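Box 3.1. Reading complex inputs
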Amino acid sequence: MRAVFLTLWLGVLMGASAAAAEQVRIPGGTYQPFYALKKKQPVAVASFALDVYPVSNQDFLRFVSQHSQWQRGQVKPIFADRQYLQHWPGPLQIAPQQAKQPVNHVSWFAAQAYCQAQGKKLPSQDQWEFAAQASETKADASQDAHFRQRILDWYARPTQLATVGSTYRNIYGVYDLHGLLWEWVHDFNTVMVTGESREDSSLDRSLFCAGGAVDGADPANYAAYMRYAFRSSLKGNYTLKTLGFRCAKEIKS
Amino acid sequence: MKKNKSHFKKLFPKLFLINLMAFSLTACPAPKESAADTTAEHFAKQLPEIQGEEQAVLTHAPQVPPAITRKHATKVTVKMDVIEQEGELSEGVRYTFWTFGGKVPGQFIRVREGDLVEFHLRNHPNNKMPHNIDLHAVTGPGGGASASFTAPGQETVFSFRALNPGLYVYHCATAPVGIHIANGMYGLILVEPKAGLPPVDQELYIMQGEFYTQGAYGKPGLQPFSMEKALAEKPDYVVFNGAVGALTGDKALTAKVGERLRLYVGNGGPNLISSFHAIGEIFDNVRHEGGTLVNHNVQTTLIPAGGASVAEFKVETSGSLVLVDHSIFRAFNKGALGMIKVSGEENKAVFSGQQEAKVYLPEGSARQTMPQEKAPTSTAAKTLEDRIARGSIIYKQNCAACHQPDGAGVKGAFPPLAKSDYLNNNLKQSIHAVANGLEGPIVVNGESYNSVMPKLQLSDQEVAYVLTYLLNSWENKGGEVTPEMVKQERE
């Protein structure tokens, strides 16, 4: 009884942090990735846990306060470029309105370090895509024209950063997978959309560990195509205004 | 010289391969390195020497950077920003354009044959998408596409030699290529031949492209891209310079009589081929497909998607020239229309203007009869008010189109019926005119008219009604016309 009370009290103290770190279980299954390794070969995704919200500036501030090597000005250039956390007023300071906004201007390395500090990791591309194909009502909305169009519409709009949890909650209870900002995934550059995208279908696939030149399983799924193209343009130390992250965790069966 | 160049073009991919090999594992069997060196050196020797450097002047359409006067090759630095931003596609219609330099089409780049171009592509941090550039003027993989693949907030640099003179399209080639081009990512680069281009008085930059919106043509608000329409190649908008009306009204292009004009015309597509035509002009010279072949006396030049054309002509007389895609519904229903307003003196030796306008009478009869499907039947109106009311309806049906609903007429074409001296001073001639039609010069309220009023198929009764209506309208003198009076005037 006392322990429960203590936990609750601690939870209140932790406030938004506890909420942000909240995860839900994504029951495993298979999905058809946008890139076709072989013709329409579905990929199995094991059950995993995923953060309900993208990591906020407030969450990330707490992290860098405790891990000085990830503070702006301290971080090694190979781990984060010059734009790293440049939107914060100071290395350990955020503007009040930024607290609930998703953290952006973070590199892959910093995101991964954040997740590791919590005993988690960045979701794999398959995990992220699997969770993100769910709409409010369907686990697989990838063929839902309305859902696709909504994603495309967001891609087409110039960026205006809103707060975490302000878009939609999917059937698993996860917020903001589309419509807020791009998110890092662990293996962001394993599917190759090269700069010369038009040659991708003739790339020597054995050159790449994912074996995946993009050869769209569904060429009409422009939304997914754009996501893969976006990830392919990244390097691990890049920090973008439109790119944040959330963490995942394996579930041991 | 020419022979040499084509030789090098063939060698280029080989060079690239050899380069690649040089960086590959040392365990690989060594290629004929000496041969490779010879080729590279040989190639380098043939290229013009680079003297000095300069920053490229970039212009937004319809402006074109100034002609290049230097007589040597130089290093030209081009810095281009990619900006995703909302803008106006048509009045009240918004669209999120992806642009090279902030506008559609992208900025015009002008270099000289042999120049070394150092290209900086800067993807604005606010953008969501990675972008790149494929310049058709580039000899090399992807036209620079892979070398310029740039994430938001990043800048990439690559260099190329402008080997071939001509007018070339550039565009974004990031996946999905179609959507990047459909959102407006295209522009033109001119590689001036070494000898330069003949001087003209004005150079203009025009680029066609089509837009695929969720809403139909003219539907207001922010219109998202429609994948469905793009795949079906059925755009609602086909426009010059990025918007409906970008080259009309206040934004119409201008020229003076006697000027020589050169239009650099590109077609960004993404899908349609343009049948570019200037209504009221004949292109004296067309650099076909933007290349070296010059054709003369061209009415309509075909511009492929991802292609360009250079059209030159001298403006001989004043008036408006209308630029269209002669796939004509695109021009008048989807926006592919621009204007060049030519000021100066009319050149009557070239074009007279209208010399005469008269009714064509196949039967040879003096006056025209307007056919009516069936003869009107009606019972007589009892009171003057009723008769005026009947007359009013007949007027609206038969007369108002020319003489106007308020009887004011159209100066110089259709005489006024309001406060009309012709009507008030000589009623008989007015009855005669309505009953029999009228042809030839008359003077109404001090204005001369020389035209034709057709004979209308109206009964005596109806002619009486309509004239009674006229007499009692618009400050005319009042009174009444009877069917008997009309009968007397009938021929």
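In summary: The first helix of chain B runs from residue 2 to 23.
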